[in-house]
């Protein structure tokens, strides 16, 4: 008996609630509670049922879904697995991405899921975009060799050492991506170029950090209830990095604990767990004052859109004729812990959100030293606010 086709109409599909709806011939519409949905084709090949996604309901019309279903049903009738065939076709199409700028863009798309904010900040792709693609972007990736790479990066190899190193590392990832696509490339070209470029002469300088004994005076100068003053205060009190501070949201605060999502921390977003920051009474007061400025869920919004920038806090320190920068307060806190307390190393490093120990050791550790860190930051808050601080002794916690 012939199967009934085209059971659905565009209006019926649009107005359907959550559930599964058959259009016939193995084509199904799977709707979600939020109104979205997915087209799915069910076929049987080699005695096994396969479900093949044909696109989202919002992007693929009923007509397009039926046309796609017809194509893949025909493939199935040829005794070919449609899912494997589609993957084969995609690989064949990928092999045509032979220009470096196209391969680089494809590599970037593949890595977005593990980058913070899907790489929207541009930090991953920018070194390639600014320093590699203008010269090599239109070359076939298989023709690029170590001399091309050396000549491209040589002008910045010593003067912008960190940027040049990032550009070379990103290019290495792109070359390996090209090889994975089946393109004939020299995946050792970047390492050969590194050897040709030689050792970098650029001397890395640390971000200027305010000596911890001077921190109370500067903290006292932040007397205005402005976004910039409040942001700097919370930065100093918690010892966190600038990005989590600037992107702090109301829902991240749970009582006297601030939970920083792994997606906005330093490191790979797919490997970085959430980080709990104990909030002292002083920090909670700052957060409470910041709530009057909140917009769009952010406690430290920018005047126009988004959130306060790191440059905004830096400029305030520049106007105060200071050589120090906001990120340096992490060093101020760490130096104070070392010189004015007897805090165990693991607790001190975890206070700054640093990874402590190897992978095996971390796997067996069942604590993030939250309460020990709370004591450290409470003492630090007293120092920062000018209430004095005696040497703090903590019992070393067992991992």
Describe this structure in words.
Belongs to the 'phage' integrase family. Keywords: DNA integration, DNA recombination, DNA-binding. It holds the Pfam family Phage_integrase. Residues 205-377 form the Tyr recombinase domain. With 399 residues, the chain is an alpha+beta fold. It folds into 3 domains: 10-91, 2-Layer Sandwich (Double Stranded RNA Binding Domain); 96-197, Tyrosine recombinase, N-terminal domain (DNA polymerase, domain 1), CATH 1.10.150.130; 212-393, hpI Integrase, Chain A, CATH 1.10.443. It is 45% helix and 11% strand. It has helices spanning 10-15, 62-77, 82-95, 100-111, 126-131, 133-136, 146-153, 161-180, 189-197, 215-221, 227-238, 242-246, 281-290, 310-319, 329-340, 345-351, 359-364, 370-384, and strands at 19-24, 27-31, 37-45, 48-56, 253-254, 257-260, 275-278, 341-342, 392-393. It is globular, with a radius of gyration of 28 Å. Residues 389-399 have low confidence and may be disordered.
Compact description:
This protein is α+β, with helices and mostly antiparallel strands and 399 residues long. The chain is built from 18 helices and nine strands.
What does the overall shape look like? globular
Count helical runs: 18
Q: What's the N-to-C terminus distance?
A: 68 Å
Low-confidence regions: 389-399
What structural class is derived from the secondary structure elements?
Answer: alpha+beta
> Strand portion, in percent?
5-15%
Tell me how many strands there are: 9
Give the strand order of the largest sheet, numbering strands 1, 2, ... along the chain.
1-2-3-4
Mean pLDDT across every amino acid position: 87
- CATH top level class name of the largest domain: Mainly Alpha
Please name the CATH topology of the largest domain: hpI Integrase, Chain A
The CATH architecture of the largest domain can be named as Orthogonal Bundle
Which sequence of SSEs, written as H and E, runs from N to C? HEEEEHHHHHHHHHHHEEEHHHEHHHE
Radius of gyration: 28 Å
Major sheet attributes: 4 strands, antiparallel
Helical residues, percent: 40-55%
In CATH, what is the homologous superfamily of the largest domain?
A: Intergrase catalytic core
GO molecular function, one term: DNA binding
InterPro entries: DNA_brk_join_enz, Integrase-like_cat_sf, Integrase_catalytic, Integrase_DNA-bd_sf, Integrase_DNA_bind_dom, Integrase_recombinase_N, Phage_int_M, Phage_Integrase
Domain Tyr recombinase: 205-377
Keywords: DNA integration, DNA recombination, DNA-binding
